[in-house]
């Protein structure tokens, strides 16, 4: 199965799960929670305030060497969008936006997050951010773990939501 088929399949439209494809074209689903959604919104709000130019994308589909992965939040510069946004928003991106954010869910393993970090950075992301279940933020680049985001140095190290 490819990403366009997944998006066009009406039986998959109203699932309460995040859908990705693995390297064999198989659908991989993980449950979405309200806590997860709250972190997505808060991270997006901070990014929109601190990086007003560019495009914020939640549930950003990115083609990787291990199938289509979906970043919980992504930020793409205007330059990125000029180059990669011309074919429309209905297809997976072939290159990762500059910032790809994953929010750790109870169903995620550290190994899965490490793999996603590697896949997004290999696809051109400048930074990978991981939001832990307690709201702590971790920032990474191809050089390794960062003390602060280099692209958004004022981004908070902790995201507070009411579900905590």
Low-confidence stretches: none
CATH superfamily: tt1808, chain A
Order of helices and strands: HEEHEEHEHEEE
CATH class: Alpha Beta
Overall domain count: 1
Rough outline: globular
Approximately how much helix is present in the residues? 25-40%
Instruction: Summarize the main sheet.
Output: 6 strands, mixed
Derived structural class: alpha+beta
Strand order of the largest sheet: 3-4-5-6-7-8
Describe the structure.
This protein is of the alpha+beta class and 164 residues long. The protein has a single domain (32-146), classed as tt1808, chain A (Alpha-Beta Complex), CATH 3.90.1570.10. The chain is built from 4 helices and 8 strands, in the order αββαββαβαβββ. The strands form 2 sheets. It has a 6-stranded mixed beta sheet with strand order 3-4-5-6-7-8. Strands 1-2 form a two-stranded antiparallel sheet. Helix 4 links the parallel strand 5 (99-103) and strand 6 (127-131). It is globular and about 40 Å long. 28% of the residues are buried. The model has no long low-confidence stretch (mean pLDDT 88).
Task: Write a brief structural summary.
The protein is of the alpha+beta class.
Give the SSE map.
Blueprint: H1 3-8, E1 17-21, E2 27-31, H2 34-50, E3 55-64, E4 67-76, H3 78-84, E5 99-103, H4 110-122, E6 127-131, E7 137-141, E8 144-146
Parallel strand pairs: 5-6
Antiparallel strand pairs: 1-2, 3-4, 4-5, 6-7, 7-8
Q: Keywords for this structure?
A:
two-stranded antiparallel ribbon; 8 strands; 4 helices; 6-stranded mixed beta sheet; 164 residues; tt1808, chain A; alpha+beta
């Amino acid at each position: 199965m490819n990403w366009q088929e997944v998006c066009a399949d009406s039986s998959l439209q109203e699932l309460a799960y995040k859908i990705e494809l693995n390297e064999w074209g198989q659908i991989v689903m993980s449950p979405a929670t309200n806590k997860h959604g709250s972190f997505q919104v808060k991270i997006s709000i901070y990014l929109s305030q601190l990086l007003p130019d560019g495009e914020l994308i939640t549930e950003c589909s990115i083609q990787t060497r291990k199938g289509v992965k979906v970043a919980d939040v992504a930020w793409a510069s205007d330059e990125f969008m000029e180059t990669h946004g011309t074919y429309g928003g209905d297809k997976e991106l072939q290159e990762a936006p500059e910032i790809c954010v994953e929010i750790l869910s109870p169903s995620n393993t550290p190994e899965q997050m490490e793999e996603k970090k590697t896949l997004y950075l290999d696809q051109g992301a400048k930074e990978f951010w991981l939001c832990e279940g307690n709201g702590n933020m971790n920032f990474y680049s191809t050089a390794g773990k960062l003390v602060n985001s280099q692209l958004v140095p004022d981004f908070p190290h902790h995201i507070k939501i009411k579900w905590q």
